[in-house]
Amino acid sequence: MHNEISIGRRRFLLGASTLAAGAMLLRSGSAFSQEGLTPQQVLNDPDMPSIGPKDADIVIAEFMDYNCPYCRKSHPELKKLLKSDGKVRIVYKDWPVFGPVSDYAARMALAAKWQGGYETAHDALMTAPKRYQQDKEVVAVLRKAGIDMARLDKDATAHKADIDKLLARTSLQAETIGLQGTPSWLVDSFIVFGGLDHEQLTEAVAEARRRKKEAAGTK
């Protein structure tokens, strides 16, 4: 039997495939499993790259892969959301599940943090016209985007242990939560699976705010 909520005319179902939207409801602050991982630990991880105001009232964690077609399709929709709603923050969870080239792309994007270029790298990798078959294609996209490649290589080596920990932490979080693929979204208090457009993202944020207000009213 599925847990479900309705947002507008759409119904989000727990257990839906990653090709369609689905949602799992969570009580505010409740653990995902016996391991004790809470939504707030996922949403407020200071080591993970993020974009949006620090005082945002709704935080969305996106578990994504640069070779995931649905992540790519959702990327411009997510950018629209950030422009239309100034109280949303996105936490990027690099979760390379499409093989070695995806892993390389994730590592290079994370390494760009140390030159203040994660967002630039992320946008470039998400908007390239085709999937990456080789590491050199990732390099070409990042170089074209203006990333300092000499420094990137140095940072990728110098901070390898940090990058390993970030990727391992994201993978463990995804496994603990029970995610099945990318993109997957933790929208404050519930999980949504699959590619989303701007309207669906906006409705999910509105639902998160409604639930937050409702929870505050019951305290």
Describe this structure in words.
The chain is α+β, with helices and mostly antiparallel strands and 219 residues long. It has eight helices and eight strands, in the order βββαββαβαααααββα. The strands form two sheets. It has a six-stranded mixed sheet with strand order 3-8-7-5-6-4. A hairpin with a 2-residue loop joins strand 7 (184-187) and strand 8 (190-193). Helix 2 crosses helix 8 (198-217), helix 3 packs antiparallel against helix 4 and helix 3 packs across helix 7 (160-177). The longest helix has 20 residues, at 198-217. The two termini are 30 Å apart.
What's the topology here?
Layout: E1 4-7, E2 10-13, E3 22-25, H1 39-43, E4 50-51, E5 58-64, H2 69-84, E6 88-94, H3 100-111, H4 118-127, H5 135-144, H6 149-158, H7 160-177, E7 184-187, E8 190-193, H8 198-217
Parallel strand pairs: 5-6
Antiparallel strand pairs: 1-2, 3-8, 4-6, 5-7, 7-8
Helix pairs in contact: 2-8, 3-4, 3-6, 3-7
